[in-house]
Amino acid sequence: MNRIGKEYNDFCIIMGEPIIEKNVWIGYFTVIDGQGGLIIEEGVEISSGAKIMSHSTEWRCINERRIIEGAINKAEISYKSVKIEKFSFIGTNAVILKGVTIGHHSIIGAGSVVTTDIPPYSIAVGVPAKVIGDSRQFRDEGIREITPSKIHHSDIL
Ligand SMILES: CC(C)(COP(=O)(O)OP(=O)(O)OC[C@H]1O[C@@H](n2cnc3c(N)ncnc32)[C@H](O)[C@@H]1OP(=O)(O)O)[C@@H](O)C(=O)NCCC(=O)NCCS
Question: How much is the pLDDT for 71?
Fold first, then answer.
């Protein structure tokens, strides 16, 4: 697994081989599924309880394949890669489904279910998640002065 600088807590479940870039924060009780391919870019924050899924087994289930074959056949699992672009924020208990790209500097609201790509600088909320605004409304003039060495993770839990 490529975890560049492990800067997140141990109470997350990481499956497969996600690429997690530097200065990523991953909160408590999250599920990070890299089985179908997952890139989490620099500076992303994933709040507690969020789930990022790059696989799904509904086809195998409704076709009774797991019972028929008596074993897990990976060929019958649907995989699609997910990308969370840099400096995006994933709210608590949000779910990101397989195949989705979250554009950079986006905000995904608490409890949202993201089923389609989200453009950069979006604020997206709801089930399914819809873009309701531009994240640059949250932007601070001082943003460029913050360097990773000055960020304390205890401040952003
Ligand atoms: C997405 C978020 C940042 C939006 O904040 P905001 O810009 O101040 O938005 P507002 O509160 O003005 O809400 C705007 C609209 O979106 C709706 N909305 C806001 N967050 C929502 C959410 N998570 N799910 C569904 N709808 C939401 C509001 O009800 C409101 O709808 P209305 O216009 O019909 O009244 C915020 O609501 C949120 O979900 N933050 C995540 C908090 C979190 O996960 N914290 C974890 C610890 S870091």
Answer: 60
129 close to ligand 1 (CB < 6 Angstrom): no
Which residue of 8, 125, 137 sits with most ligand 1 atoms within 8 Å of its CB, as the best mutation to test the pocket?
A: 125
CATH number at residue 22: 2.160.10.10
Nearest residue to 108 (alpha-carbon basis) of 132, 91, 86, 128? 91
User: 20 with 4: CB under 8 angstroms?
Assistant: yes
127 lies in a domain? yes
State the residue range of the domain holding 97.
6-150
CA distance 131 to 52: 19
How many domains are contained in the chain?
A: 1
Q: What is the pTM of this model?
A: 0.88
Residue 85 has pLDDT above 60, yes or no: yes
